[in-house]
Amino acid sequence: MSTQVRTAADVLIDILIEQGVEYIFGHPGGAAIPIYDALVGRPIQLVLTRHEQGATHMADGYARASGKTGVVLVTSGPGATNTVTGLLTALMDSVPLVVITGQTNTRNLGLDAFQEADVSGITYPVVKHSYLVKNPLDLPRIVREAFYIASSGRPGPVLIDIPKDVSSAALVRDTRESFHLPGYNPTNHIDTNSVREAADLIRQSRQPVLLVGHGAIIANASENLRKFAELLRVPVVNTLLGKGAFPESHELSLGMLGMHGTGYANKAMVETDLIINFGSRFDDRIVGNYATFGKRAKKIHCDIDAAELNKVVPVDVAINGDAAEGLRLLIEHFQDPGKRPDTGPWLRQIKRWRREMPLKYKKEGKLRAQHVLDEFYKLTQGRAIVTTDVGQHQMWAAQFLLTENPRDWISSGGAGTMGFGLPSAIGAQLARPGELVVAVVGDGGFQMTMSELATACVLKIPIKILIINNRYLGMVRQWQNLFYEDRLSGVDLEGSPDFVKLAEAYGMKGFRIRRPADVRRILQSALEYHEGPCIIDAEVEKHDNVFPMIPAGASLEQILLGPPRKKMDKPTGST
Amino acid sequence: MNNTKDILTQKKHVISLKVSNKPGVLIRIALVFSRRGYNIDSLVVSESQDPRFSMMSITASGDPDTLHLILAQLNKLVDVVHAQDYTDSDILQKELGLIKISCSAEQRNQALQIAQVFKAKTIDVGQESLIFEISGQSEKLDAFQKVLVPFGILEVVRSGKLLMARGLEST
């Protein structure tokens, strides 16, 4: 706190402290200097990143790992535009962020001043809500509103654009102005009729499946999910972001469904007569073809966001509300054991599918990504927070690193943002010091944000960065290989650095795995290294493809459990 | 081919919104429409009796199957207090139009007679032109405009639909 007159920026920091903010992730610049100045000597740790995108992903990883709101502080113009990818990532995956951007002086707005950008205009489509603060007296109310909106209902990113003259204006004290948001009612009460209708459908069902998504984790519904699944003996499938909502090693768990989900999870989705969806938005990665999806099944969908109900998949019963509360109300209908459906034959059928369609890979010959991940899982027994980038390594990690607990799996699902893995791991480790955090990244995505290695090193953040290095943009190569007659275009990552030497250049420890025989030993040494961050460069087979695979836009029945024998048509789905 | 199909299945929707009276609200609302490929045909915004809020009446055309999504997404906006579809429902709908036609002295009587039938006001008379003011249902304005075509329409400005729920119900 400066000894001079207190400013709006000082009050801003007061309110961040009041909101429980421990870390601010950011990068300064001219228009943000008054706010950075106000941070000096205050009990909030600033994490100086090397790029604003990194700051948003760190705040995102922090938020997903902790359940708290992540805070970002950047400057105007390019500083603000560099947050756009992070905002989209957080919006698509419902992550609470408050992103504060410096702005040019109010009198210069719209006049193309130095480092001016219409940040509100650029970010409207990628925020839950946003503010441009014109009057310092409004700032206290806006900041509290922003935290409330970011974290309540379906969480999301909220942006506050603060002109330099506003942040540096004298503001003797907090206005304590309360806020009133008549258009925002995130805590709606669940209609008990919809729950009763859902219970009726469940009683009539013989082959139900419980589908759980990120919403169940956000709602802290894990305990109720487990109660419900065990009470009714319902098999559980989870989305990519639903990993950890229900323990994937549980006998009732079929793991991940969808494009690269397990054969048995997808088979269960084809044969089920009732889909009970808590907190998944029926994303195209799990639906495949909307015309054929679950056509034999009735559907129950519980979502806190009314705009997700009947959005892409028409349902029989829509429950608008919190997943944990919805489950609690639903469980009440099944206290009488005589009223529970008999799922015995269905579970036996699923057990057969599980035997017939296991996830598999070769441990001999060349080094396989799956082998590295499987071994990592065995060594850690699933006790790790895993963040990922986007691509083949992400899908293999989702398949082989079973997730036991909510908030232990952190991955960019909706946006599919490459470069997310490293910075989000830094944020996750800050949120949960003392726990093992591993960033599973590809050699492609890693190079998009690897400048954040410096951030990890400076703070001695002991994350493990496991690079699944196949020297290709592997997922695109896989599509070109399967659907475009192997006409490879723009996927060869020649020219990448030696990642072990790169680690050394940052003063980090680097490990390399080349042979299947070394996997366990080297992973073990990396796990025993506690001096700071380390890189494990796993040089894996270049031409492996991820299976199972449901081609984009295809029905779940059209799943490929292994390499196809005949030539494949181009997928009908967009990506 | 696809375009022809899209146009054929499109329908005009009448939506009323109560929103916060703040900068940026209009853009957020317009983005919901444009993202789903809806075209906004008319838009009326005015401050409500409480200056903290504005009333908006929007006529938009697009795929009727996705209208419920548009409404849900509008209602999701923090600044939207409520958004409601009034297509095909019993609500007061009025529009104001100003129509300038080319009209010689010889044609003037005929034009004025037509205006009388439509209860339009003549608000400007020039040597070679007339301007009418007409209010009522949008269909009435359409019909009036149509019969004036033979005179030569020089300019048309219409307010867009104004909506109000009947009785004590609020819009």
Average pLDDT rating of chain A: 96
Radius of gyration over C-alpha positions of chain A, nearest whole angstrom:
24 Å
List the quaternary state of the chains.
Answer: heterodimer
Largest sheet of chain B: 5 strands, antiparallel
> Strand-residue fraction of chain A?
15-25%
| Spatial order of strands in the largest sheet of chain A | 2-1-3-4-6-5
Low-confidence stretches of chain B: 1-5
Helix count of chain A equals 23
How much strand content do the residues of chain B show?
35-45%
What sequence of helices (H) and strands (E) makes up the elements of chain B?
A: HEHEEHEEHEEHEE
What class, by secondary structure content of chain A? alpha/beta
Mean pLDDT of chain B: 92
User: Which two protein chains have the largest interface (Cβ within 8 Å of the partner's Cβ), and how many residues from each?
Assistant: A-B, 19 and 20 residues
Strand runs of chain B, count:
9
Distance between the termini of chain B: 39 Å
CATH hierarchy, class of the largest domain in chain A: Alpha Beta
CATH class of the largest domain in chain B: Alpha Beta
Distance between the terminal alpha carbons of chain A, to the nearest Å? 50 Å
Number of domains of chain B: 2
Report on the architecture of this protein:
The complex is a heterodimer of chains A (575) and B (171). With 575 residues, chain A is of the alpha/beta class. Chain A folds into three domains: 160 residues, Rossmann fold; 165 residues, Rossmann fold (3-Layer(aba) Sandwich); 179 residues, 3-Layer(aba) Sandwich (Rossmann fold). Chain A is built from 23 helices and 18 strands. A six-stranded parallel sheet of chain A has the order 2-1-3-4-6-5, with helices on both faces. A six-stranded parallel sheet of chain A has the order 9-8-7-10-11-12, sandwiched between helices. A six-stranded parallel sheet of chain A has the order 14-13-15-16-18-17, sandwiched between helices. In chain A, α7 links the parallel β5 and β6. The mean pLDDT of chain A is 96. Chain B has 171 residues and is α+β, with helices and mostly antiparallel strands. Chain B folds into two domains: 84 residues, Alpha-Beta Plaits (2-Layer Sandwich); 73 residues, ACT-like. Chain A, domain 2 (Alpha-Beta Plaits). In chain B, 29% of the residues lie in helices and 40% in strands. In chain B, strands 5, 6, 7, 8 and 9 form a five-stranded antiparallel sheet that branches. Chain B starts with a helix and ends in a 7-residue tail after the last strand. The relative contact order of chain B is 0.19. Chains A and B meet through β5 of A and α2, α3 and β4 of B.
